[in-house]
Amino acid sequence: MADLFLGIDLGTGGCKLTVIDARKGVVADHLVEYITHTPHPGWSEQDPADWAEAFYACFQGMKEKFSFNPKEIRALSLDASTHNAVLLDENDRVLRRCIMWNDQRSFMEVRWLLEHHGPRLFLLTYQKASPTWTLPQLLWIKNNEPDVFARIHRIAFTKDYLRYLLSGVWSTELVDAGGSMLMDFSKTEWSREVCDIINLPLSSLPPIGKPTDVVGAVLPDVARRLGLGDNVRVVAGASDTAVEDYAAGVLRAGQCIVKLATAGNVNVFTDKPAPNEFSFCYNYVVPGMYYATMGTNAAAASFRWFRDCLARRCAPGLNYTEIEKFAHEAPPGSAGVIYHPYLNGERAPYFDPHLRANFFGLSSYHDLRHMTRAVLEGVAYSLKDCLLTAISVGLVPDEIRLIGGGGKSPLWCQIVADALARPVIKLRNDDSSLGSAMLAGVGAGAFSDFAAAVAACTVVESVYTPIPENVRLYDKFFSLYKEIHDNLAPLHTRLHGILAEL
To answer: What is the DSSP string of 111-175?
Structure first.
């Protein structure tokens, strides 16, 4: 009998599962997508029922695709994007679709919070308010959907909601709790003072534990439906960012993760909290470690938007690999076309929900080739913006590891290395679901410690070294990229005002 561990990732775009053998590494994985609803500009919502449906479909698809025995799964763990609150009534029914981390509707609530409580909130939560946090999202619901707010009995974050369905245990852990902007960061407990700002009862918030806590077991009816054995342990888990960084082998301060997924992140790891106004501050899955996150809202999401809205209009049916071939045919710098990836406003370093994406420098000479490469380069410039912001506040990394679906593109990896002017390490497998499976193994005792799981499951695939002439070129274009942003930002705000009056 093997010792298998299941990792469940509820990503922004879909549910990804990974099964690992504690001795052999990854043995199975599968992905099922679900949709995001955008009923208004700047809004982003998902239906929690879609997460559960996708999980069961994904597990069934994985069983059909790979040869493994579900009864050998000893434990499971979950992760998901943070900040997303599922609101439940007294009968545990979902009250509304879940407002997602990239939703920008709560900008007025953010303005109010900063004006009336900004310094105190930062002192307690280590975070500067922006629309990505649960606190302003809840305040928006209180202001705009008071009947819904009044009926809130329990709050469960994304992964915690699915874990509740699988185990019957309502809880969270310190990474997701910190991602709500409702937790007193230094005490690792819910802040009554913060909750009182929006009249949220502390009783509506779940108990806080550690990511590796065994919180319960899979319910018998769920186990039968999945074909699992008895007493499959359920490990708490963490945010998708925390566990994917763990899957990439982060174990010490000074390491840095650059993420090319739906969103893009630059995460610099420290041995003590490093709160500052330009980044987010989180606990990490490894005890005694923390990380500062600078995030761009639309990284791979920009490429997906470009594929669906532009490239496929020119050539229907194109997949990512085929579209990427266009970028290979354009020179570095895209012959002067610059793309800003602000499809959903922007987080670091601007925290401006009104920013919008644009192509700059287009002429009749340019075509799909230049625009495709410009999208890849624009996302890389945005990541460079984040990295330079981290360095400006003293967070200087000594190693960069690249993760995320965008990392499947060797061209994009090279562009990132050239734009950042630093070597970039690419891992063979860096999925959040792998990190969750590793965490399940640590929590269940199959690995002696965090480093043992990394040694068994994390493999370096390649290293991308910056090309000097590209570094010099991208430095020049990045300077222009920044200047374009600075000049257009007031116009984006004016545009938002005009649209708000329609």
So the answer is: HHHHHHHHHHHHHHHS----TTSHHHHHHHHHHH-HHHHHT--EEEEHHHHHHHHHHS---EEHH
Backbone torsions φ then ψ of 451, nearest 5 degrees: -65, -35
- Per residue in 345-398, pLDDT tens? 998 888 898 999 999 999 999 999 999 999 999 999 999 999 999 999 999 999
Under 8 Å between Cβ of 441 and 33: no
Residue 222: how many other CB atoms lie within 10 Å: 16
Contacts for 339 with CB less than 8 Å, ≥ 6 apart: 302, 357, 358, 359, 360, 371, 374, 375, 377, 378, 379
Q: Is 483 helix (H, G, I), strand (E, B) or coil?
A: helix
63 and 154, same domain (yes or no): yes
Which range marks the domain in which residue 135 is found?
A: 4-241
69 lies in the same domain as 107: yes
Tell me whether residue 366 is exposed, middle or buried, using C-beta atoms within 10 angstroms of its C-beta: 0 to 12, 13 to 18, 19 or more: middle
Backbone angles phi, psi at 8, to 5 degrees: -120, 120
Residues 237-278 pLDDT 10s: 999 999 999 999 999 999 999 999 888 999 999 999 999 888
Query: Can you give the CATH number for the domain in which 376 is found?
Result: 3.30.420.40
